Amino acid sequence: MLIIGIAGGTGCGKTTVVNQILNELPEGEVGVISQDSYYKDTTHLSYEERVKINFDHPRSIDFGLLADHLKILKSNKPIHQPVYSFVKHNRTGDTILTHPRKVMIVEGILILTNPDLRKMFDIKIFVHADTDERLIRRLKRDISERGRDLDEVLTRYQTTLKPMHDQFIEPMKEYADIIIPNNKYNTVAIDIVKTIINEKL
Ligand SMILES: Nc1ncnc2c1ncn2[C@@H]1O[C@H](COP(=O)(O)OP(=O)(O)O)[C@@H](O)[C@H]1O
Ligand SMILES: Nc1ccn([C@@H]2O[C@H](COP(=O)(O)O)[C@@H](O)[C@H]2O)c(=O)n1
């Protein structure tokens, strides 16, 4: 199994890059795990308490469970990937049965901050988009898809998102094997990653 880690700040285009990679590759050969599925279970907290969580700090992620799941997949067994709700700020209680594939892609803002995970990735990719571009994309996406308003996104951006990005996410470029510039759609970089994957399939 080839495990590819794709990191980068919120709105840089990780999910889009993953979908572009999957597009045209043989169905059922490449699997995806999202770090978002591994936000810690916060059922014991009220909604008001959950809203205040710093979701851009590594401690918000259950990296132990994520690493365990990757090990299980590596041993050719399926996992139950939790489903996360950005509206409820919590896991839904549902899971998605995720089967091992020849290539597994793990994507998320903080996945390169965890040394155990870093060791498991055969290829580490960092997707870069400029800060203003990411904020614009995030604003549009969170308002249209994640049930947020302008004030919520901007307040979260100023209080946690930007400081956490500068402290934890941007420095992870150092560990990347490949950095994909993604201010514009980058078909050349996507084709290179697809070629690497096709060699493995
Ligand atoms: N290269 C790009 N140019 C313009 N818009 C993009 C680009 N990549 C992604 N987007 C858009 O930006 C938003 C955030 O992208 P997404 O892939 O969800 O980012 P991430 O997963 O890194 O948070 C989405 O609405 C997506 O359509
Ligand atoms: N309940 C939550 C959980 C996370 N976030 C934000 O999601 C971002 C990471 O997801 P991407 O798809 O953008 O990579 C992260 O910056 C968190 O702030 C949230 O808003 N609410």
TrEMBL record:
Pathway the protein contributes to: Pyrimidine metabolism; UMP biosynthesis via salvage pathway; UMP from uridine: step 1/1; Pyrimidine metabolism; CTP biosynthesis via salvage pathway; CTP from cytidine: step 1/3
UniProt cross-references to Pfam families, sorted A to Z: PRK
Catalytic activity entry: cytidine + ATP = CMP + ADP + H(+); uridine + ATP = UMP + ADP + H(+)
MF term (GO), any: uridine kinase activity
EC number: 2.7.1.48
Similarity annotation: Belongs to the uridine kinase family.
Name this protein carries in UniProt: Uridine kinase
Species: Flavivirga algicola
Organism placement in taxonomy: Bacteria, Pseudomonadati, Bacteroidota, Flavobacteriia, Flavobacteriales
